[in-house]
Request: fold
Amino acid sequence: MTFETLDHVFTINVNAIMTVAMASILLLLGYFVKSKVKPLEKYCIPAPVIGGFLFMFVTFAGHMTNTFSFTFDSYFQSPFMLAFFTTVGLGASLELLKKGGVMLFVYWFIAGVVSLCQNIIGISVGRLVGLDAPYALLSSAISMVGGHGAAAAYGSTFEEMGFASAQLVGAAAATFGLISAVMVGGPVGRRLIVKHSLKADQEQNFDMDVSRINAASDDKLSGLDVMKNVAAILLCMAAGMMVSEWIGKWIGMSFPTYVGAMFVAVLVRNMNEKLRFYRFDFSLVDGIGDVMLSLYLSIALMTLKLWELSGLIGGVLAVLVCQVVFMVLASYFIVFRILGKNYDAAVMCSGLCGHSLGATPSAIVNMTAVNEQYGMSRRAMMIVPIVGAFLVDIIYQPQTIWFIKTFVQGYIG
Reply:
């Protein structure tokens, strides 16, 4: 950590290790505040969100007063996300994947339809308020489903076409979506569970099967056993990155590294069940995954620049508010019923709000907050990451390109 004064602003430069350390402190602070403020616990607001938000207001105060600022090295953010999705894959026994069944395809279809509705909302509301089509679409599925990466990529293209604020609007919209995702997802799931008196162990004894398949041995793990489990995670991460690179070259587009890692991990888990390479311990791997996810989200939120939302004025803000209202109402009144009106459906609705407004880790942290309070939905924790991480892109990308070609004059893609 170093300190310097730039343009009369006291600047704190935080290295990668210190960034993780600060994120861990904010995470613990979030858990403490959540335990003391009952509405936060009641409505399933995730601890990383609470801690990250508190720090965001600190950096916002420094920006507004022009007295101090932070610069962070988020080097470990991507590895944490990669590690988390690897642990998700290692938790997916083939027996459990079979239990996903038709519901995986139903949820995938729903996520695709949601992305289509988001683009329709963006264009429709944008026209009503006189917003240019590129800005309307940047406030729709591009930023809501695609996140900051897609917003930056499409924003750069729109800027080259003469829409000077495209990248700013995209970044601000993605930030708004990420914040909204973790604020509404938990309460939606919680409300559905409470209203319908849902229990975690209803659907086809799924949780009982999970407990049996992932049961821990009564024998204490040795240090070597722990190391083998950690080594398996690291090897899956490394191999998964290579697989994602190969797939990306094959399809001619960027392919998320964490998707490759997750599928490699699924293969390793199920090969290990047959060949017994090492003593797999689900509780250990699941615990590592929880830590990685919490640290990832804590870093993501503490490094967000709240003042970027100042770019959300007029029509852009109107479109984004409509997107959030649509997701809440659609999840609560429509998607929940399509998914079966059971506990898994309620948890999956909280996840849908997460990755359809923010990002797949937002979906996971929403579902984790609900699971911690009401019980585990392994089906939701298995299906939602697979759809949110990659499958939804198969639907959202082509139809978004169609919207751009149809409503943005001069676009060639």
